[in-house]
Design goal:
There is one protein chain. The protein contains 4 helices and no strands. The chain has 118 residues and is mainly α. It is globular, with a radius of gyration of 15 Å. It starts with a helix and ends in a 6-residue tail after the last helix. The model has no long low-confidence stretch (mean pLDDT 91).
Length: 118
Amino acid sequence: MQKVFLIIINLSWATLTWHLTTTPNLVVAPENLLNTIVMMGGHFTFFGVQASLLKLSHLNTALSILLASLYGLMIELVQLSVPGRSADPLDWLLDTLGAIAFLAILKRLKLANRFIKL
């Protein structure tokens, strides 16, 4: 039952990410520094959470990072054909760095708290 739940959570998170990043002209905020920081933080966080969910689904760390990163790359490539969107290598880098950072934090938590089973 737990495995099915984790699969559903993973797919739900991936679907939410897909929707938010491939919906045409979704960004309605003006271009400014705050908006840029929020958008960068969004990439970092969304793909960090995705990698964490993959890891909690009992995938190894490298595979969790790879899958999250490849998903980010796929989204960037799809955005090439979505009106009002653009592909940006920096976004993909932030996706990958978020995955790495979140899994590093999970590893630290595991070392600090033996109750988390990774």
